[in-house]
Specification:
Blueprint (H helix, E strand, L loop, with lengths): L27 E4 L11 H9 L2 E4 L2 H10 L9 E3 L5 H13 L4 E4 L11 H10 L4 E4 L4 H9 L6 E3 L7 H11 L5 E6 L4 H12 L3 E6 L7 E6 H7 L9 E5 L9 H12 L4 H12 L3 H15 L1
Parallel strand pairs: 1-4, 1-5, 2-3, 2-4, 6-7
Antiparallel strand pairs: 7-10, 8-9, 8-10
Helix pairs in contact: 6-10, 7-8, 9-10, 9-11, 10-11
Length: about 300
């Protein structure tokens, strides 16, 4: 039996969805694609993938598979591979298509184009050449993780992937450690424990959330302090796609002994100015004051 809305007692009536067949305007269309569930694709994205003159993708196999799932035919169109290793070679071909008045749909590997993928220069060069650039919003691992994390979302900072080398990673952490915002990180599942251990060197109690396999069958969200989560992760790391979020930094106690301790190790490997800048950023202090202390310590050593 149906109610007044047309639904049955056993569930809602299936909807009939028609994919658009009208060609989009001549522009570079940045198409957000699912980060897990193929059903997260938007109807507008399907419209553009179905009708764009030229298709480009970070991973052509993944885009072709996505199109097959949703019944979109290539109809003689080829998909241009556009990724980190060939972007400089392929960019002129994409720009030439735009110059001919064609519509180009660019899809990242997964999620929103230009977020930790090679689309940045393509969009910039297209805009600088006077072509239209359109965004087709949709899935984003960073925003999905922020939504479920339970951490403050009024101010957040996406910092991408950490460097793999230990020293470079610590320097990278120091560049955002003191920022009053929720920090969003993409990390290799094999190195996530190492990242948390680096955080624990100075902020073991920092609120931390690990999102694994977002929108997929085995989606998991782990919450705790950096120290608690580091202890839960096996030495070999995790599996799947990982997003790590760190809450706002803890108030730092910046007395003279604390500053001297922070500077001691850095002065062994960095110039005075750079060591002072890192410590000043970590504790939210004026650089000139920390620089003066670093110079004093340097002279004491000499």
């Amino acid at each position: 039996m149906e109610d007044s809305t047309g639904s049955t007692r056993t569930g809602a009536r299936p909807l009939s969805v028609t994919i658009g067949t009208t060609a989009p305007e001549a522009a570079l269309h940045l198409v957000a694609t699912p980060i897990g569930s193929a059903r997260d694709i938007t109807l507008r994205a399907l419209d553009v993938l179905n009708t764009a003159d030229v298709l480009a993708a970070e991973d052509t196999r993944k885009l072709r598979h996505l199109m097959d799932i949703h019944g979109i035919q290539l109809r003689g169109r080829r998909i241009i591979a556009y990724h980190d290793h060939n972007a400089d070679r392929q960019r002129p071909a994409v720009l030439a298509a735009l110059a001919e008045g064609k519509s180009v749909a660019y899809a990242s590997d997964a999620g929103t184009p230009l977020v930790a993928d090679p689309g940045y220069r393509l969009a910039r060069d297209a805009a600088e050449a006077g072509f239209l650039v359109r965004a087709l919003p949709g899935p984003s691992a960073a925003l999905a993780a922020l939504s479920v994390s339970g951490l403050p979302s009024d101010r957040f900072l996406f910092v991408g992937f950490p460097p793999s080398a230990g020293g470079a990673r610590r320097k990278w952490i120091d560049s955002w450690r003191g920022v009053e915002a929720t920090v969003i990180v993409f990390e290799s599942p094999r190195r996530v424990k190492q990242l948390l251990e680096n955080i624990c060197e100075t902020e073991a109690n920092r609120a931390t959330v690990i999102c694994r396999e977002l929108t997929k069958k085995f989606e998991e969200v782990m919450r705790g302090t950096a120290e608690e989560l580091a202890a839960r992760i096996p030495d070999e790391g995790l599996r799947g796609e990982i997003v790590v979020l760190f809450g706002h930094p803890e108030p730092a106690v910046a007395d003279a002994d604390t500053l001297r301790a922070a500077l001691t190790g850095l002065l062994d490997s960095l110039p005075v100015k750079e060591a002072a800048a890192q410590v000043a950023n970590r504790f939210g202090l004026p650089r000139r004051d920390v620089y003066a202390l670093a110079l004093e310590m340097k002279k004491e050593r000499e």
